[in-house]
Each structure stands twice: as C-alpha cells, then as structure tokens.
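[worker-b] picked up task from shared queue
[worker-b] task type: protein-ligand structure
[worker-b] ligand name resolved to guanosine-5'-diphosphate; SMILES cross-checked against name lookup, match
[worker-b] sequence length check passed
[worker-b] input payload:
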Amino acid sequence: MNAVDVVLPCLDEAAALPGVLAAMPAGYRPIVVDNGSTDGSPEVAAEHGAVVLREPRKGYGAAVHTGLLAARSETVCFLDADGSLDPASLVALVAAVNDGARLAVGRRVPVARGVWPWHARAGNRVLAAMLRRRGVPVSDIAPARAVRRRDLLELGVTDRAFGYPLELLLRAARARWPVVELDVPYRPRAAGTRSKVSGSVRGTARAVRDMAAVLR
Ligand SMILES: Nc1nc2c(ncn2[C@@H]2O[C@H](COP(=O)(O)OP(=O)(O)O)[C@@H](O)[C@H]2O)c(=O)[nH]1
Ligand SMILES: [Mg+2]
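[worker-b] inference finished, payload out:
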C-alpha cells in the first residue's frame, strides 16, 4: 500500500492531538502544521509521532498550503486536528480518489446534538447550494479531503485564511473535476480544546469575511 501524508492544521490543540494521532490508519503519516500555538501543541504532536512544521503566517489556508508543499505522497489528505473528525474516515476518501475522483471530501454528519452550531451549519448550506449550481455535488464545505498532491498544486488555491476550503471547491468546479462527497461522522471537538472558527461570533465573522472574499 502506498503511504499517504495527512496534513493537520493546528492551533492550540494539545489536548486533542494524542487521540487524533493515535487514530491514524496504518500507512497514514501525520504532518501537523502549527501557527504559533501557546499550549505546547508542536511538542505534543512530535511526541506522538507526527512530523511538525511551524508556519509563521497565520490562518488555516497558510497551514494547509505549507503542509501540501511538504507532503511527498501522491495522494494527500487534510483533516482538522481538534478531534472532531476520525482519521479512519480518510481511508474511504483516498479510495474514492484511487477510483477516479479528482477530489474526495467529507460530508459532516453530527453524531450528537450541539456538535455543529446552527449558524455555521446554515452558512455551509447556502454555500453548498451555490456550489451545486456550479456542478459540484456537495452539501458541506468540509475540512476533510483527499486529493492528488500534483492536482491540488496545479489548481492554485490562493486564499491563506479561512476561505481556503470554499476556494478549493470553486476551483474544482471551474476545472470540471469529478468530486465525490462521502459521509464522515462529526463529533464534539476534544475536551479541553476551544473552537477557533465556527464556535464563536468572532471566529464565524472571520470565516464569513474570508469566504465572501473568495466569492468576489
Ligand atoms: N495552523 C492553523 N490552524 C488553525 C488556525 N485556525 C484554526 N486552525 C485549525 O483548523 C482546524 C479547524 O478549526 P476549529 O477551531 O476546529 O474550527 P471549528 O471546527 O469551526 O470550531 C483545527 O484543527 C484548528 O486547530 C490557524 O490560524 N492556523
Ligand atoms: Mg473543529
């Protein structure tokens, strides 16, 4: 089996990382890309077997792009480091890419009430409907994906902040990529960690701003 690099953007996820890294399927190599965590995340990641990169530029997209540049496997996965997504879900996404998808993304299915704040979910729905009209069959703007490294580099996503996942899907639509969306369980983030994006008014406002910039 070919190894698969897994890029995990990380900001203050020290409490979540041990569980996330322990759940990596065999042959999946975690690359944790940290942006100035103050809770010791890089050290915890290294202790639990991850390659650790430090990205000086802030933002989800900056971390993801740096991880992509460092990855070496033919197919690369991306996953949040907060414990909300199971690394085991990546296996089916990679299989979809091996079966002909240019991009395989997760559709988050909450496993419990309150996992997914209503405002984040509503915003996602609107954006996903817009993507479907452009020919991308998705119902989520998901933080779990598998794609060939070379394809993603060629696609040329430029956002380095929180518009990255949306820009990626828009560019995939424009490039007429076959996109496959598969259900992935969405759990509460690990205890002792805090949401940086959709769990607060400030984080949500930032995500909306960055996604709106992508749509202009
Ligand atoms: N490197 C890096 N990672 C980030 C940044 N903001 C969020 N993340 C990570 O991106 C993932 C998604 O953020 P999260 O806080 O879970 O957003 P939520 O799911 O909307 O609550 C998590 O793994 C975060 O640690 C950032 O500025 N830099
Ligand atoms: Mg999260």
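[worker-b] attaching auto-annotations
[worker-b] The chain has one domain: 4-215.
[worker-b] releasing lock
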